[in-house]
Structures are given as structure tokens and as C-alpha cells.
Amino acid sequence: MRLMRKRIDCFTFRNAKTDKDNEGVTSRVWGDPMMLTGIMWNGGGRVQEEKYGARLPMVRNIMLANKKYKEMTKDGKVIYFIDDCELTVGDGLCLSSYGEPDYIIQAIYPYNHLALELEHV
What we know:
Blueprint: E1 9-20, E2 26-42, H1 46-52, E3 59-64, E4 70-74, E5 77-82, E6 85-87, E7 92-94, E8 103-110, E9 114-120
Antiparallel strand pairs: 1-2, 1-7, 2-3, 3-9, 4-5, 5-6, 7-8, 8-9
């Protein structure tokens, strides 16, 4: 699949990590930002409509422009490596800021390019 150059944008992703404090409470912390390029569009279609229902306006899709990726399994999680970046379900996308992510990766589909399904936090 060819990606139109005028629609390609740069996106900031952050890896999700779980952290325990002194009292044993776990929380999600975010790793260092990494930049990847791709095309974003709104969620839609019959499958996503059945999957998300009323939350469909909060869903976005991204097709990453980097063709070469590696798929590995670590600790029961599938991890995709693109340009020394790790992507997995649960990682975040910072769309409007560089702080806390606005969207969380719900699904990753490995086609010729990686396709990501994101939902607003």
C-alpha cells in the first residue's frame, strides 16, 4: 500500500510501564517519547462500529510509514520493533502535547505496514 506523502505526519509515542511505589500500589508511567511517521484517520466502518459502539468518535487509526518492522514475543506480549522503537498494545500516543498521552493503542495489525487502532483516554 502506498502512502500519500502530503498526508504523512509525525507522531509521538510513549511506552507504558507499570511502577510500584513503597506501599505496593501499581500505577502506569510513561517512557521516553519516540517519533514515528504515518497517516491518521478517524475510526469508522461496520467492524469498528460494532466493536466500539457509542465510543466510535473517540477512535483513530494510524498506518505507520516505516515498512520494516520485526515482531517478537516477550513475557506473553507481542512487541513490534520499528527503527529502534518498541510498540505494543497499551502504549500511548501524544497528539496534542508531549506530556501524558491522549490516545492508547488498542490493537496492532501487522500488514505490509503496521496499522494501529487507538482510543482516546
